[in-house]
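User: quick one, sequence for these tokens?
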């Protein structure tokens, strides 16, 4: 049975007894991006509109967009984000950002090493499923990350809220596949969804309220 604990930084961590520590995945976190606020200008509503599927929580949407990227399914990527207002999109980004940070931490815990050029190549392959106008932002952000240029990475990934969502989702997908492989990563995502649903039931809220 999964247990959930809340560290002091406000994130929620899922753990399953007897599982390898690399199966731990952060469920939610606060938004952390750049020194300046992410712009949610006119371009954002054309990409992220979540009014059509009110039954989905931001956590559902975050996991769905990752699954779309895992499957190289551009339609699924679009449908996962087809709906939120700016506030909802911010929550999706916050969850994706927490997942990215926890996955990077897990990569360090494994003690394994990955070739940066392999990760960049994987990101390019996965980013093909992003909306065309964000594919280049993903490529820019990935290359800036690989060369350790945090300023350029932030500039590329945080041009607007939709760009931040797609760049971060691709990052989670690349790292998750590198750590667990496709089958293992999908299992981890399923456990994350299960734990989030359990938390929602415990706190007494659902997609229509928080």
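Assistant:
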């Amino acid at each position: 049975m999964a247990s959930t604990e809340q560290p002091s930084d406000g994130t929620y961590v899922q753990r399953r007894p007897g599982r390898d520590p690399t199966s731990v995945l952060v469920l939610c976190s606060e938004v952390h991006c750049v020194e300046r606020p992410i712009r949610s200008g006119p371009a954002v509503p054309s990409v992220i509109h979540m009014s059509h599927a009110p039954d989905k929580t931001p956590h559902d949407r975050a996991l769905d967009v990752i699954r779309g990227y895992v499957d190289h399914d551009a339609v699924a990527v679009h449908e996962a984000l087809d709906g939120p207002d700016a506030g909802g999109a911010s929550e999706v980004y916050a969850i994706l950002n927490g997942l990215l940070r926890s996955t990077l931490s897990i990569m360090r815990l494994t003690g394994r090493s990955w070739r940066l050029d392999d990760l960049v190549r994987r990101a390019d392959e996965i980013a093909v499923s992003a909306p065309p106008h964000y594919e280049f932002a993903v490529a820019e952000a990935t290359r800036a990350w690989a060369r350790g240029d945090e300023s350029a990475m932030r500039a590329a990934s945080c041009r607007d809220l939709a760009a931040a969502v797609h760049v971060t989702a691709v990052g989670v997908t690349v790292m998750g596949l590198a750590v667990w492989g496709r089958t293992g990563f999908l299992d981890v995502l399923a456990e994350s969804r299960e734990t989030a649903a359990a938390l929602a039931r415990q706190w007494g809220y659902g997609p229509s309220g928080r």
